[in-house]
Design brief:
The structure holds 2 protein chains of 2 kinds. Chain A is of the alpha+beta class. Chain A has 3 domains: 46 residues, Uridine Diphospho-n-acetylenolpyruvylglucosamine Reductase, domain 2, CATH 3.30.43.10; 115 residues, Uridine Diphospho-n-acetylenolpyruvylglucosamine Reductase, domain 3 (2-Layer Sandwich); 107 residues, CO dehydrogenase flavoprotein, C-terminal domain (Enolase-like, domain 1, 2-Layer Sandwich). Helices cover 34% and strands 28% of the residues of chain A. Chain A has a 5-stranded antiparallel β-sheet with strand order 4-5-10-6-7. Chain A has a 4-stranded antiparallel β-sheet with strand order 11-12-13-14, sandwiched between helices. In chain A, helix 11 packs antiparallel against helix 12. Chain A is globular, with a radius of gyration of 19 Å. Chain A starts with 6 loop residues before the first strand and ends with a helix. Chain B is an alpha+beta fold. Among the domains of chain B are: 153 residues, 2-Layer Sandwich (Aldehyde Oxidoreductase, domain 4), CATH 3.30.365; 197 residues, Aldehyde Oxidoreductase, domain 4, CATH 3.30.365. Chain B contains 18 helices and 26 strands. Chain B has a 7-stranded mixed β-sheet, sandwiched between helices. Chain B has a 5-stranded mixed β-sheet with strand order 7-15-14-13-8. Chain B has a 4-stranded mixed β-sheet with strand order 16-24-25-26, with helices on both faces. Classes of the chains: A alpha+beta, B alpha+beta. Chains A and B meet through helix 12 of A and helix 3 and helix 18 of B. Bound molecules: flavin-adenine dinucleotide. Flavin-adenine dinucleotide binds next to strand 2, helix 2, helix 7 and strand 10 of chain A.
């Protein structure tokens, strides 16, 4: 478990980081290091330089801007877990952060790092889709904002281009009648999601007005369960509706499988956890 | 004079912990020697392949690389020894060499050694060594390996069979099965586990050119044995040319008992280069190349009567030994497994046949419990299977078959020593009471009506501790090529401080504390005044080391006896000081006095001073209080108990929730309840993890798919319930302290409690058996197929 040789640069601003990335296409950003360093130790990843953004002040903090919550990319899982603002205005994120890894992982790992890494089994991506979050990406040609729906493009692949940095995550403030929940089966070793489903529902008069459901773990990347969203909108989210709606939501052929959990089994779990997440979200609305 | 407080029986915290948990321990990798070099190993990516050629030129040219060696370079030393072969039968023991020669037999097999100025350079240069392999078909399953046409791991071992061994009475067992009212049959797999000590293994060897002597710091549970094996067998040099030191050892679970290639190649390279050589495996190497445990495929039949009497047990086991024969590999599935298969039950006819087979996997050897968890899992699973078949309560079936208190010493007919003592029913009753058994059955029935699956699993176990009398284990029938006594030296220095030097050494057991408690009470000195020294072949005269739950029942007894000898001598010297007759003296609470006159006493410190200054000693008495004992136990000890697990299975996902864990253990007399509790906690965690989480998993090509901690699930606190533990105490008649041992009990009692609970939870669906680990998918599939069967 020894990395290859690399050079190390610590930067204080986003601009500095961008210019270093520009100069060295082989360089990688270092956030909490909890995905990158393990990969380097296994020599699965071997960047020639690391650009450490952990001291970049502008990438930190959680604040409210109108109806939007702005979360700096370098915000750690434990800062999210403990944030009073989020607990009140977007309780799903503290709930998700709470179950990631262990305290050591949560104290170092960051939201930006997790999203940029886009591990197919990471927990946050499902909630980003369910919340309708968007990501601010900055590069030498300026910045842009990408919807969660267009952010996760493949296994370990995102809309972040080379030389670009994810700087902020934008999440809408919870409105009246909204409930949100995340339900997951964790892998007993890694504690990553085998299947994780995040659901956000807006209820009125016992009827679902809007539903957004994101799924992670089972497939090559996190994705929306749009068919399910349509199927439950306009209906009460009772047990009968949910069990009828949560059937064969995904095809095993589109999923990952290994000796711990086959694709067939993961497909089944998507049905189970989608149902549980919707029920839990409805219960909190 | 104030009484010294009694230490035996006190739940004091471990004296070693502040040092270890603050990171102030001294592990092999903490040791740095002047001129030290680092070794890294080029390892096979193939499970089975011929080595066609190795090009080391690029690696050698890499700056900082001192040397690159291949297997052929080290042909002047012998392969590692096979120290425990299966008793009484032929063993085709093909042991590993320091590096593979000609072919590799498992992923991770070492093919070349790089020595460099630092560990990063060494590791980088590993990637520069070019090895040309010719891949061969692989076999990973112990039983499939014996089938016609299976790839052959070693030319010498036809059908990949290393040994074929049996115990018990084949004819009687066949007759019992043929005439039985009921026979239950099952195929039971005890899956491969990876021990995963917190500290990985490693060696640091220094060759002293001036004296021709080696010193090796090693992660070892048995440094004296390593000295013997490495000198007499591997290097062919006098034993006195090697000093082995095991400093702090960060967990072992058996994995650190054995003789490994790195011990040999660091010594060899150090002699060649004239510089110290350190090798520390990384976690991936530990998973691929240090020993694994268990891995049995078993066909079992249990016969009995309709009223719940077990009449016969027939077992056929294929035990996976891996790519080569590890140090004591063949002893585990034979003596430590076959001979205790009938567990806590009086079974009139039993027979066990074992094939030890080679496969293209990591070597398999003793892992916590070593043979006994496999045995107790098998019999306890079958007792439940039998109970279900005849429709009797599993607790009642156990009760009807227990060996009774009056049956001890008990001979189980399988070639084991007699069980020393036991009283099994009280432990069962207490455990049933703790879970409120009758009420649970009611709750279970109610829950089923609501579609909730609750289950309760019982496990009554017995194990073999305090291994072992040399006259038994060392005899030809057991195949162990040595004795198993232990030594201890006790000295009382002239300041009155007590120093104990022992061949038993800790790697998590807390024996520094336990041993000091014993000595404090025996000699009547403050606990703080007792120092325990261990782990160095220059210190204790000899030692067989720590495994087989033998530290207390064997090592502890050696020092207990030395303490008796110290007291005897102290009385003689005190008599001289008091001008009394030695035969009138008594020694109590650290003081020697004439019987009836405790006021005029000499303390041990005063006596020690007199003994050390030595100007006035009785005629014929040597100076100093210094006594050595080689203690060979008259028998093993046989702790026992009943464990109960309660689980709830999620019908929708198959996920098992372990809700309660109750254990009633009888480990004989207890020296430190806190340490016993700690040993049980750790042991139970490992058994629970075997039932639910852990699986050393190879695919058909021999690739280890559970090769990192991302996939291999070791148990963490968050995965375990609060243990509810109680004891019964049945002292062992084997030793003067009545102790049995507790290091392995938790592991031996637990896996089957959990599996029996999982299967009980699904019994109403017709589920009779399921293999470990009960992962969510496996449980879910079992539910699905039994539902389909019912439709
Ligand atoms: C033991 C352990 C258990 C874990 N368990 C879980 C779990 O249960 N659930 C879960 O979801 N995760 C889990 N993780 C992963 C953890 O959440 C990581 O912290 C996270 O995935 C990566 O965040 P990081 O800040 O550590 O990123 P780093 O490892 O530093 O970086 C990851 C990647 O993202 C890039 N990157 C980082 N920041 C940016 C940025 N701002 N812009 C562009 N690119 C960037 C890096 O260049 C790198 O390629 C676990 C990790 C460990 C070690």
């Amino acid at each position: 478990m020894y990395t290859n040789q690399f050079s190390y640069h610590r930067v204080n601003t986003v601009q500095e980081a961008i210019s270093l990335l520009q100069k060295n296409p082989d360089a990688r950003l270092l956030a909490g290091g909890h995905s990158l360093i393990p990969a380097m130790k296994l020599r699965l990843s071997d960047p020639s330089a690391l650009v450490d953004i952990s001291r970049v002040a502008e990438l930190k903090g959680i604040r409210q801007r109108g109806n939007t919550l702005v979360i700096g990319a370098m915000t750690t899982h434990s800062e999210i877990e403990d944030s009073a603002l989020l607990k009140q205005l977007c309780p799903l994120l503290p709930e998700v952060a709470h179950i990631i890894g262990d305290p050591a992982v949560r104290n170092r790992g960051t939201l930006g790092g997790s999203l940029a890494h886009a591990d197919p089994a990471a927990d946050y991506p499902a909630s980003m889709l369910a919340l309708g979050a968007s990501m601010k990406i900055v590069g030498s040609n300026g910045d842009r904002v990408v919807d969660a729906d267009n952010f996760f493009t493949g296994m370990f692949a995102t809309a972040i281009g080379s030389g670009e940095i994810l700087t902020e995550i934008h999440v809408p403030v919870k409105t009246a009648g909204v409930g949100m929940a995340y339900e997951t089966m964790m892998h007993p070793a890694s504690r990553y999601a085998i299947v994780g489903v995040a659901a956000m529902v807006r209820m009125s008069g016992g009827v679902c007005q809007e539903a957004r459901v994101g799924m992670t773990g089972a497939g090559h990347h996190a994705m929306r369960l749009s068919g399910l969203e349509a199927a439950v909108t306009g209906k009460p989210l009772d047990a009968a509706t949910l069990s009828a709606a949560c059937k064969s939501l995904v095809r095993p052929a589109d999923l990952l499988g290994d000796h711990f959990a086959s694709a067939d089994y993961r497909a089944h779990l998507v049905d189970v956890y989608a149902q549980r997440a919707l029920a839990a979200a409805a219960g909190k609305a | 004079m104030a009484e010294v407080t009694k230490m035996i029986g006190k739940a004091i915290k471990r004296r070693e912990d502040p040092r270890l948990i603050q990171g102030r321990g001294n592990y092999v990798d903490d040791i740095k020697l002047p001129g030290m070099t680092y070794a890294a190993v080029v390892r096979s990516p193939y499970a089975h392949a011929k080595i066609k050629g190795i090009d080391v030129s690029r690696a050698l040219a890499h700056p900082g690389v001192l040397a690159v060696y291949v297997g052929e370079d080290m042909l002047d030393i012998n392969p590692l020894p096979a120290a425990w072969q299966a008793g009484g039968v032929k063993n085709v023991a093909v042991t590993p060499r320091a590096l593979a020669v000609g072919k590799v037999t498992h992923v991770g097999d070492g093919v070349a050694l790089v020595i460099a100025e630092d560990r990063y350079t060494a590791r980088d240069a590993v990637d520069l060594v070019e090895v040309e392999y010719e891949p061969l078909p692989a076999v990973v399953d112990a039983r499939k390996a014996t089938e016609p046409g299976a790839p052959l791991v070693h030319e010498a071992a036809a059908n990949n069979i290393c040994m074929e061994w049996e115990c018990g009475d084949a004819a009687r067992t066949s007759a019992a099965i043929a005439s039985a009212e009921v026979v239950v049959k099952e195929e039971i797999i005890n899956q491969r586990l990876i021990p995963t000590p917190m500290e990985t293994r490693g060696s640091l060897a220094r060759y002293d050119v001036a004296t021709g002597e080696f010193t090796v710091w090693m992660t070892s549970q048995a440094p004296h044995v390593m000295r013997l094996l490495l000198t007499a067998f591997v290097f062919g040099i006098p034993e006195t040319r090697l000093r082995c030191i095991a400093p702090n050892v960060g967990g072992g679970f058996g994995q650190k008992i054995f003789c490994y290639a790195d011990m040999a190649f660091t010594m060899w390279a150090s002699r060649k280069l004239g510089r110290p050589v350190k090798y520390i495996e990384d976690r991936s190497e530990n998973y691929k190349t240090s020993t694994h445990g268990r891995d049995h495929v078993t066909e079992v039949e249990l016969a009995g009567t309709r009223d719940g009497k077990v009449t016969g047990l027939r077992v056929k086991t294929w035990a996976n030994l891996g790519g080569y024969f590890s140090t004591i590999a063949a002893g585990i599935p034979t003596t430590l497994y076959g001979r205790i298969l009938t567990g806590v039950y009086k079974i009139p006819a039993a027979h066990c046949k074992v094939w030890g087979t080679y496969t293209n996997t990591a070597l398999v050897d003793a892992y916590r419990g070593a043979g006994r968890p496999e045995a107790s899992y098998l019999i306890e699973r079958m007792m439940d299977r039998f109970a279900a078949e005849i429709g009797m309560d599993p607790a009642e079936v156990r009760r009807r078959n227990y060996i009774q208190p009056q049956d001890f010493p008990y001979d189980n007919g399988l070639g084991l020593l007699t069980y020393d003592s036991g009283n099994y029913e009280p432990a069962l009753n207490k455990a049933l009471q703790m879970v409120d058994y009758q009420n649970f059955r009611h709750e279970q029935a109610e829950a089923r009506k609501q579609g909730r699956y609750l289950g309760l699993g019982l496990s009554s176990y017995v194990e073999i501790c305090g291994v072992a009398p040399s006259a038994w284990i060392g005899a030809a029938g057991q195949g162990w090529g040595a004795g198993l006594f232990e030594s201890a030296n006790v000295r009382v220095h002239l300041t009155g401080k007590v120093v104990v030097t022992t061949g038993s050494l800790p790697h998590g057991q807390g024996v520094e504390t336990t041993f000091a408690q014993i000595l404090a009470d025996e000699l009547g000195v403050p606990y703080e005044d007792v120092t325990i020294e261990w782990g160095d072949t220059l210190a204790a005269p000899f030692g067989y080391g720590t495994y087989g739950s033998r530290s207390l029942a064997v090592g502890g007894m050696a020092m207990h006896r030395s303490a008796q000898k110290i007291k005897e001598k102290a009385k003689i010297i005190a008599a001289h000081m008091l001008e009394a007759a030695p035969e009138d003296m008594v020694f109590e609470n650290g003081r020697a006095f004439v019987k009836g006159s405790p006021d005029k006493a000499k303390t041990l410190a005063e006596i020690a001073l007199q003994a050390s200054l030595a100007y006035s000693l009785p005629q014929g008495t040597e100076p100093f209080l210094d006594e050595t004992t080689y203690y060979d136990p008259p028998n093993c000890t046989f702790p026992f108990g009943t464990h109960i697990a309660i689980v709830e299975v999620d019908p929708a996902t198959g996920k098992v929730d372990l809700k309660r864990y109750v254990g009633v253990d009888d480990v004989g007399n207890i020296i430190n309840p806190l340490i016993v509790e700690g040993q049980l906690h750790g042991g139970i965690a490992q058994g629970v993890a075997q039932a639910l989480y852990e699986h050393g998993f190879y695919d058909d090509e021999g690739q280890l798919l559970s090769g990192t901690m991302l996939e291999y699930a070791i148990p963490t606190a968050a995965m375990l319930p609060w243990y509810e533990l109680e004891h019964t105490v049945t002292p062992s008649p084997v030793n003067p302290m009545g102790v049995k041992g507790a290091g392995e009990a938790g592991t031996i009692g637990s896996a089957q409690a959990v599996m029996n609970a999982v299967i009980d939870a699904l019994s109403h669906l017709g589920v009779k058996h399921m293999q470990m680990p009960a992962t969510p998918e496996r449980v879910w599939r079992t539910i699905q197929s039994s539902k389909q069967a019912a439709d």
